[in-house]
From TrEMBL:
Species of origin: Niallia taxi
Entry EC number(s): 2.6.1.11
GO biological process: L-arginine biosynthetic process
Statement: the UniProt record of this protein carries the keyword Magnesium: no
This protein's pathway: Amino-acid biosynthesis; L-arginine biosynthesis; N(2)-acetyl-L-ornithine from L-glutamate: step 4/4
Names of required cofactors: pyridoxal 5'-phosphate
Primary location group: cytoplasm
Quaternary structure annotation from Swiss-Prot or TrEMBL: Homodimer.
Note: May also have succinyldiaminopimelate aminotransferase activity, thus carrying out the corresponding step in lysine biosynthesis.
Cofactor binding summary note: Binds 1 pyridoxal phosphate per subunit.
Domain of life: Bacteria
Residues annotated to bind N(2)-acetyl-L-ornithine: 125, 264
UniProt name for this protein: Acetylornithine aminotransferase
GO molecular function, one term: identical protein binding
Length: 385
């Protein structure tokens, strides 16, 4: 009998060990893992260099309060700021916590409270992050929400214009909606959103928690669209599996998070910082990111080719290595069947299979995954219509 709250309906696989893109169960079965946590272990499980960096820090000190200057924290902040074109970083422990901080910073800096987010968005489970999230199922039973969040349809400029008035503190968005079904924002919508924000004195916050740290083939997904956000948030892939979250913001915002204004006991933990520094050092290398782009093209075109005649498949889409396969039918049972066939994947909403492989997965591993998906989905091809 489990003493855990049943907040997650658990899968049938109990991991015993994991390395790279493979996981081994306590029953001795081998699985190809195309989830990398949920887009967390971007360098694969138990990456040797990240492991060595954490071990080296373990021998020095594990935790000191944020009252001390810590060199490894400065180094991580500098790497994150440089890669994102930002000035200052605040380290937290999770994605939701990073978004909380971004929302607080936006309110304080603008003196305004209204924040616009989008339908199907996901920003986390804490109160402000949940209020920001554009999915009713996340909010059920927890009301009332914070009142100052307004959701508008994604990629809908007219709807945004109607809400984006002078009293708006910020617009917060995912460039690729992850949990909401792998929806990529269109470029005109993003550019126009940025311009509208500037014209009414609202900040642009980009939630890069799932899309950042090389996931899309750039350090951050907003860089595909030449955007210039005021704040970004990061978490999932930032330390390859050690809990961490971060806000990175422009120079004009630095003064609003002065001494005593915001804080966290665990944020910026030295072990997480050691992992983050090594992870960023490897992923932000141009040759590494180029490979992610190539693997993305390889995987998307192979999926499109192998699934194009399949009537159960509606669309394959994505950016970099955040990829969705939208089906005509619910995916829950199919995910379980794929696990039985040795492949671990996620859903994004009811009808989308979500692939978030480690970024250093090999093309042979990708081929293996596509074969398993193709064979399984073939069974559904004619039933779906
Ligand atoms: C996962 C996620 C979050 C929440 O992060 P947690 O670490 O679970 O709090 C927020 N925004 C996006 C886009 C995410 O994918």
């Amino acid at each position: 009998m489990s003493h855990l709250f049943p907040t997650y309906s658990k899968w049938e696989i109990e991991p015993a060990s994991a390395k790279g893109s493979y996981m081994f169960s306590t029953e001795g079965k081998k699985y190809l893992d195309l989830t990398a946590g949920i887009g967390v272990c971007n360098l694969g499980h138990c990456h040797d260099e990240v492991k060595a960096a954490v071990e080296a820090q373990l021998d020095k000190f594990w935790h000191v309060s944020n009252l001390f200057p810590v060199a490894i924290q400065e180094k991580a902040a500098s790497a994150l700021a440089t890669a994102s074109g930002m000035e200052a970083v605040f380290f937290a422990n999770s994605g939701a916590e990073a978004n909380e901080g971004a929302i607080k910073l936006a309110r304080k800096a603008t003196g305004k409270t209204k924040i616009i987010t989008f339908e199907q968005s996901f920003h986390g489970r804490t109160f402000a992050a949940m209020s920001a999230t554009g999915q009713d199922k996340i909010k059920q039973g927890f009301g009332p929400m914070l009142e100052t969040f307004v959701n508008v349809p994604f990629n809908d400029l007219e709807a945004l214009k109607a809400e984006l008035t002078e009293d708006v503190a910020a617009v917060m968005l995912e460039v690729v909606q992850g949990e909401g079904g792998i929806h990529v924002a269109n470029v005109e919508f993003l550019k126009e959103t940025e311009a509208l924000c500037k014209s009414v004195g609202a900040l642009l916050i980009i939630d890069e928690i799932q899309t950042g740290i090389g996931r899309t083939g750039k350090p951050f997904a907003f860089q595909h669209f030449s955007l210039n956000p005021d704040i970004i948030t990061s978490a999932k892939g930032l330390a390859n599996g050690i809990p961490v979250g971060a806000i990175a913001a422009k120079k004009e915002l630095v003064e609003f998070f002065g001494p005593g204004s915001h804080g966290t006991t665990f944020g910026g933990n030295p072990l997480a910082m050691a992992a983050a520094c090594k992870t960023m050092e490897i992923i932000f290398e141009e040759s590494f990111l180029d490979e992610v782009g190539k693997k993305s093209e390889f995987l998307i075109s192979l999926l499109q080719e192998k699934l194009k005649a399949n009537t159960a498949v509606k669309e394959v889409r994505g950016l970099g290595l955040i990829i969705g396969i939208e089906l005509e039918l619910p995916v829950a049972n199919i995910l379980a069947e794929l696990r039985e066939a040795g492949l671990i994947v996620l859903n994004a909403g009811e009808k989308v299979i979500r692939l978030l492989p480690s970024l250093n997965i090999t093309t042979d591993e990708l081929k293996e995954a596509v074969t398993i998906i193709e064979n399984k989905l073939n069974i559904y091809s004619n039933i779906a219509i």
